Amino acid sequence: MKLWKTSTADNKFRNSVKERDNWICARCGKDFKDNKKMYHCSHFWGETRSSTRFNYDNCIGLCYICHYGDKVNGWEFNKQGEYRDFMIKKLGEKKFNELTKLANSLMSRRESIINFMKEYETLPILWKANSKKRKKVL
Questions:
Q1: DSSP string, 36-60
Q2: What is the pTM (predicted TM-score) of this model?
Q3: Is 86 exposed, middle or buried (0-12, 13-18, 19+ CB in 10 A)?
């Protein structure tokens, strides 16, 4: 199989996280099935860290307001506060510490994409529902 471009892997990953979380914001609980553009895949450890870029434990679905908010209340700007507490509660202390260790390890982007491509093949089919590119209707 040909290695995916980063943008392809990102799109497949983000969409599978959104499907996994059923388009429900993990913070406010609102349903975004009818307003998908306002629903994001949030990485606790940022996408610059290849080791956790495609890690499902590292990501949750958040609406735009809960993700970015007003740059004060959005979880993207509060990762060592409420967002961290949420992740510890979600994962448990041990798994959160393992994720933190992984986030601080080195991995090439190529290696992370190869690992994700292997994992993607084993995902439930529903997680992949929106991961395929749609053809434009003329």
A1: GGGEEEEESS-TT-HHHHT-GGGEE
A2: 0.87
A3: middle
Over residues 120-137, the pLDDT tens digits come to: 988 877 576 554 433 333
Residue range 79-108, pLDDT digits in tens: 999 999 999 999 999 999 999 999 999 999
DSSP state of 128: G
Q: How far apart are CA 138 and CA 41, in angstroms?
A: 29
Contact 21, 32 (CB under 8 A): no
Q: What are 107's two structure tokens?
A: 């991995």
Query: What distance in Å separates the CA atoms of residue 125 and residue 91, rounded to the nearest whole number?
Result: 24
Short-list 55, 60, 41, CA closest to 100: 55
The answer to whether the CB of 12 falls within 8 A of the CB of 130 is: no
Q: Among 62, 43, 57, 54, which Cα is nearest to 131's?
A: 54
The pLDDT tens digits for 14-49 are 999 999 999 999 999 999 999 999 999 999 999 999
